[in-house]
Amino acid sequence: MKREYNGTSALQKKGHFITTQRRLLLDLLYEAEGHIDAKELYRRAIEKDASISQATVYRSLSLFKELGLIDEMRLGGVQCYYEIKQGIDHQHLICQGCGKIIEIDIPHFQESINKIQKDHCFKVTKVELYMHGYCTDCGNKS
Amino acid sequence: MKREYNGTSALQKKGHFITTQRRLLLDLLYEAEGHIDAKELYRRAIEKDASISQATVYRSLSLFKELGLIDEMRLGGVQCYYEIKQGIDHQHLICQGCGKIIEIDIPHFQESINKIQKDHCFKVTKVELYMHGYCTDCGNKS
DNA sequence: TTAAGTGCAAAGGCTTTGCAGCATA
DNA sequence: TATGCTGCAAAGCCTTTGCACTTAA
């Protein structure tokens, strides 16, 4: 699996061990194909390895984040959500009705960011844009 | 104080009591002139009213948020930050070096939001844009 | 007067951490 | 073999909640 290889090689490059737990968690993050929180990741992990601990899940997420393999985001609740870092940045529409998360690309968004960086002498490393509201289905209901 | 009046009248309109605690907390939120978290708000509150409880702080913040008096945001840490809702929306630059938060206005941002709403049939009620990175000072250091 | 609000303390949910044993390189 | 990693359990934070007392209207 090409994708898994990317993750594990990033671990190796920085001198981290490739453990069965980390390999499993990376696989699950790729399979998730989107946003997943630590609790759900742990739930899926113990299905494949009953002995894995929550501590390992949190420690791995923290490491993956540090290595830039995943993005962390807060979508309104208490907990964080994670997803494999994508080549192209995308932003989020969060439905307050059904909780659905819609990923969107915003045309020319990068240009706006570049302008902001210039105007404020600020070097942007990460952008998070969350738009809360109501999706088509939930909007029609009310 | 005109500003305080706004807050308390919003309470009254919806049939909520104006208590000394709520008045104090609204005052402190206005005085903060920016982002403040529940813990800091509580710290400032007990300086003026030693008997106020954390529960009241959290319950009041929750009420103010529901009434649309304040905005809640997550700036990277575990806890939430709050600020009096401003007439004009502004967005945030968050410095990863010194933790400074810079509020910015983005020209024509509302137009972009409108387009997104239209394109995705999504009714946006709240927009959060966080740009993490390094401010002028911290950018120069590295 | 009376429903709403408060303080207190305990509990809840998510995340982190210390430590002894285990596994990768 | 020697670090680094893991599992376990406990602790840490932030936030919420139950209950009896208090207070605004």
Describe the structure.
The structure is a homodimer of 142-residue chains. Chain A has helices spanning 2-13, 20-32, 38-48, 54-66, 109-120, 136-141; strands spanning 36-37, 70-73, 81-84, 91-95, 101-104, 123-134. With 142 residues, chain A is an alpha+beta fold. Chain A folds into two domains: 7-84, Arc Repressor Mutant, subunit A, CATH 1.10.10; 91-139, Ferric-uptake regulator, C-terminal dimerisarion domain (Dna Ligase, domain 1, 2-Layer Sandwich), CATH 3.30.1490. The first copy, chain A, is flat. The N and C termini of chain A lie far apart (45 Å). The model of chain A has no long low-confidence stretch (mean pLDDT 90). The A-B interface holds A 74, 93, 95-96, 102, 104, 106, 109, 112-113, 116-117, 120-136, 139 and B 74, 93, 95-96, 102, 104, 106, 109, 112-113, 116-117, 120-136, 139. Strand 6 of chain A pairs antiparallel with strand 6 of chain B. Chain A binds a DNA duplex (25 and 25 nucleotides) through residues 15-22, 37-39, 51-56, 58-59, 62, 78-80.
Core attributes:
DNA-binding; 6 helices; homodimer; alpha+beta; Dna Ligase, domain 1; Arc Repressor Mutant, subunit A; three-stranded mixed β-sheet; 142 residues
